[in-house]
């Protein structure tokens, strides 16, 4: 497992890097082979933020936590990723996950632009992987979002699955 720890507006001490690596390595019990795991530590005012992205078997696990203490943020984000792995494992079976070294279903870039009020304040680019609707729902649940954009394997068109307010899921299919 290759863990890349970076700091944004802060210096990463050896002790902090060692702690991150020790905690993130707990994910190894769920899979034989994670791809490169990216950890971004940042400080904004008095908030300590940790973002982790971990590609696995064509899916992208992602966690983000923010507290007043960096070590607490690290603990919380690893706990969140472990819950995601448990959910993923329940969906595909109780076996230990062996990942294929392939591209994640989508890749988030840190392309961010600031605009005037009442405008788009953040832009993210991604590449959509062909997958079934069930796979898209599982990926959406794993990353903890309320929607997920993907290339539908049946139609080979871009679709969006989303979580409905009163339970269940919805699917948006564009008409051309």
Topology:
Layout lengths: L2 E6 L5 H11 L12 E8 L2 E10 L2 E9 L2 H23 L37 E2 L1 H11 L3 E6 L5 E6 L5 E4 L4
Parallel strand pairs: 1-2, 5-6
Antiparallel strand pairs: 2-3, 3-4, 6-7, 7-8
Helix pairs in contact: 1-2, 2-3
Architecture overview:
The chain is built from 3 helices and 8 strands. By secondary structure, it is an alpha/beta fold. The protein has 2 domains: 90 residues, 2-Layer Sandwich (Double Stranded RNA Binding Domain), CATH 3.30.160.100; 72 residues, SHC Adaptor Protein. It has a 4-stranded mixed sheet with strand order 1-2-3-4. It has a 4-stranded mixed sheet with strand order 5-6-7-8, with helices on one face. A hairpin with a 5-residue loop joins strand 7 and strand 8. The longest helix has 23 residues.
């Amino acid at each position: 497992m290759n863990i890349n720890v970076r700091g944004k507006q802060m210096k990463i001490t050896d002790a902090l890097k060692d702690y991150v690596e020790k905690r993130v390595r707990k994910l190894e019990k769920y899979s034989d082979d994670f791809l490169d795991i990216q950890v971004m530590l940042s400080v904004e005012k008095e908030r300590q933020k940790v973002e982790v992205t971990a590609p696995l078997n064509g899916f992208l696990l992602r966690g983000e936590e923010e507290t007043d203490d960096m070590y607490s943020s690290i603990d919380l984000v690893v706990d969140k990723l472990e819950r995601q792995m448990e959910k993923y494992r329940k969906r595909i079976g109780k076996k230990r996950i062996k990942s294929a070294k392939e591209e994640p279903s989508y890749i988030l870039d840190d392309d961010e632009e600031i605009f005037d009020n009442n405008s788009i304040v953040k832009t993210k680019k991604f590449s959509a992987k062909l997958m079934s609707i069930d796979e898209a729902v599982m990926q959406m649940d794993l990353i903890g979002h309320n929607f997920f954009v993907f290339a539908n394997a049946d139609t080979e068109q871009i679709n969006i699955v989303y979580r409905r307010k009163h339970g269940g899921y919805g699917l948006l299919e564009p008409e051309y």
